[in-house]
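Students often ask why inverse folding is considered easier than folding. One informal answer: many sequences map to the same fold, so there is more than one right answer. In these notes we will look at a single instance of the problem. The structure comes first.
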């Protein structure tokens, strides 16, 4: 049943042990009959609030489908998806859009910045779109934490790739989201800059208590997370706590084989 007011989207504050993202027997099937393709197959899991989770798997394993369904960008064929205790499947499309805008942050490989806007305007865009007031103190803290002081009046073309990704992370944090979903956030960056961005994502988890879910193909990136979930054929087939790059690489070698 769809919720009637935006106020009903406000969750009870989550404890560290609570689930920021919960999937219960979630299946996502594309197409029908002989042409049907299973993107997710009976997935049940909980991602704790204030944690950093990496999602890995071979090509075609369901990583992108998992991110889209968990973030409310796509609806499951069956099962339940909850974001901060809100049943996403119980929302109509308009309410789901509101939930994504106000409660979810996104960071993509391609940065997705508007070239005609300044850094400050790009960071504040989600609030403008939702008609919410800007908290100047929070903006200053976010800008300082992501290392963009003195760059607010610049435009994306005047920034390096790493600086543009910092803008995208600041934009994702400004709405104080329940979860930040990052899809290959270092895929377009060199090794040194990738390390800086991953350090920043680790920092926002440790300093802000932010929940981060990151899809990646890179074992070095996954090693920054608290936990790595491995997908194969649409199912979660393994998980590593406190992962190392070596252990992740070995696990991936077996999965790809």
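Output (designed amino acids):
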């Amino acid at each position: 049943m769809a919720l009637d007011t935006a106020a009903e989207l406000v969750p009870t504050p989550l404890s560290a042990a609570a689930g920021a993202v919960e999937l219960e027997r979630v299946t996502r099937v594309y197409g029908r009959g002989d042409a049907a393709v299973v993107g997710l197959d009976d997935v049940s899991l909980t991602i704790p609030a204030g944690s950093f989770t990496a999602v890995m798997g071979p090509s075609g394993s369901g990583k992108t489908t998992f991110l889209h369904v968990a973030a409310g960008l796509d609806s499951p064929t069956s099962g339940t998806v909850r974001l901060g205790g809100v049943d996403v499947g119980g929302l109509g499309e308009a309410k789901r859009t509101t939930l994504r805008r106000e409660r979810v942050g996104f960071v993509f490989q391609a940065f997705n910045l508007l070239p005609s806007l300044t850094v400050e305007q790009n960071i504040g865009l989600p609030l403008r779109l939702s008609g919410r007031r800007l908290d100047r103190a929070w903006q200053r803290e976010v800008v300082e934490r992501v290392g963009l002081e003195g760059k607010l009046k610049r435009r994306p073309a005047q920034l390096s790739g790493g600086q543009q990704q910092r803008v995208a992370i600041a934009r994702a944090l400004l709405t104080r989201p329940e979860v930040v979903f990052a899809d290959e956030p270092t895929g377009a960056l060199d090794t040194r800059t990738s390390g800086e961005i991953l350090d920043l994502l680790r920092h926002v988890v440790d300093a802000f208590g932010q929940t981060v879910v990151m899809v990646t193909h890179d074992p070095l990136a996954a090693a920054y997370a608290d936990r790595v979930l491995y997908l194969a054929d649409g199912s979660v087939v393994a998980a590593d706590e406190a992962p190392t790059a070596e252990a992740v690489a070995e696990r991936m070698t077996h999965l790809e084989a």
